[in-house]
Each structure stands twice: as C-alpha cells, then as structure tokens.
Amino acid sequence: MIQAIAFYIFAIVVLVSGAMTIASRNPVHSVLWLILAFFNAAGLMVLVGAEFIAMLLVIVYVGAVAVLFLFVVMMLDIDFAELRAGFVRYFGIGLVLAVALVCEILIAVGAWSAGGVDLARRGAPVDPTIPNIQAIGNLLYTRYLFVFEGAGLVLLVAMIGAIVLTHRQRQGVRPQNIAQQVARRPQDATRNMRPEIGQGVQL
C-alpha cells in the first residue's frame, strides 16, 4: 500500500512538473521544474529496483545537465522573444515530429497491451543473486564495451563541435600569449620598494 501511494505521488509530480517545464514563460523556472521532474523520476526508479538509473538521474541529469542549463539560461544574453518569433517558421517540422512521436507512443501502448515480455528469452540474462549495479557493470564492460566506448566518442565529438561553434573572435580583447607567460621571471612581475614613513607607495 505504501509503495502504491509513493508511486502515485511521484508519478503525479513528474507529470505536473513536466507540464510546467513546457508551460512556464520564465526559462529559469522551466529548468527548476525540470530538476523537480528528474528527482521524482529517480524516486520511481528506486521503487522498481533500478537504483543505478535513479543515481544516474540525480548525479548526471540534476547535478550536471540541469545545472548547466540553468547557468546557460542565467548567464547568456538570449533573446527569447526572437526565438519565439521563429515558431511559425518551424511549425511544419514540429508538427511532423509531433505526429511521429504520437505514432511511437501508440505503437508502444499496443506492444505493451499485447502481453508481457518473456524473461527467459532476453538477450542478456542476469543472475538474480548479484546486485543490480554489478550486473550492469558486468554487461557494460564486457559484452557492450565497444558500444560504451562509441557513446563516449560521440559525446567527445559533440563537445568539440559545441566549442568550435561557440568560439568566436572578440574585438578589443588582448589575446593570451602562453610563451610570454611561461618565460616571465619573478623579478619582471614584482618590484621591491622601500617607501619613506608617511609617503606611501608610488604605483
């Protein structure tokens, strides 16, 4: 009974916070609602025994991705009025994606109502005596090692692409000279002064 109550509480909060993430007019409030959705989704994962996924939701998504979104929204000068003005231009593409998403949801509901999954025919059977995290680690670093490394390479390429796209030459800014900084001596950076009493230091 307690598990059912906790499930409905977490599920309702996830749905409400997800809807508020989209409906909030303030982007900072949207990110905060998204963080709340992640926390409650982690609670749902704990209820079904997937504590590793719950930990990933809290550490990776809440601790890194959502906080990064929050810093980007708060620190960058983004003209949200201009972004909303392009809604009509991309309405057709958005409509196609929405129809595709609805079709995928209908297919998933039909597959779920067709019957349960035969656990004996799974591609990667797991020993029920070992913990959940250990089972994921054994599969991730043995059978799916190359897939895991490939995902890391994809993230690396995405990070490099983001740096290249956002890097731009700024006018009026002194460039950094690494060789000059390395070759600088302590006597070039400091100067010993012996000012007279009551005269102060001349800069």
From TrEMBL:
Catalytic activity: a quinone + NADH + 5 H(+)(in) = a quinol + NAD(+) + 4 H(+)(out)
InterPro entries xref list: NADH_UbQ/plastoQ_OxRdtase_su6, Nuo/plastoQ_OxRdtase_6_NuoJ
Ranges that cross the membrane: 6-24, 31-50, 56-78, 90-112, 144-165
Main localisation: membrane
Keywords, ordered alphabetically: Cell membrane, Membrane, NAD, Oxidoreductase, Quinone, Transmembrane, Transmembrane helix
One term under GO cellular component: plasma membrane
EC number: 7.1.1.-
Disordered: annotated segments: 184-203
Molecular function per GO: NADH dehydrogenase (ubiquinone) activity; oxidoreductase activity; quinone binding
Pfam family, one: Oxidored_q3
Membrane topology type: Multi-pass membrane protein
Comp. bias intervals (Basic and acidic residues): 185-194
Compartment(s) of residence: Cell membrane
PANTHER family: NADH-UBIQUINONE OXIDOREDUCTASE CHAIN 6
Family the entry assigns: Belongs to the complex I subunit 6 family.
Function: NDH-1 shuttles electrons from NADH, via FMN and iron-sulfur (Fe-S) centers, to quinones in the respiratory chain. Couples the redox reaction to proton translocation (for every two electrons transferred, four hydrogen ions are translocated across the cytoplasmic membrane), and thus conserves the redox energy in a proton gradient.
This protein's name: NADH-quinone oxidoreductase subunit J
Organism: Sphingomonas dokdonensis
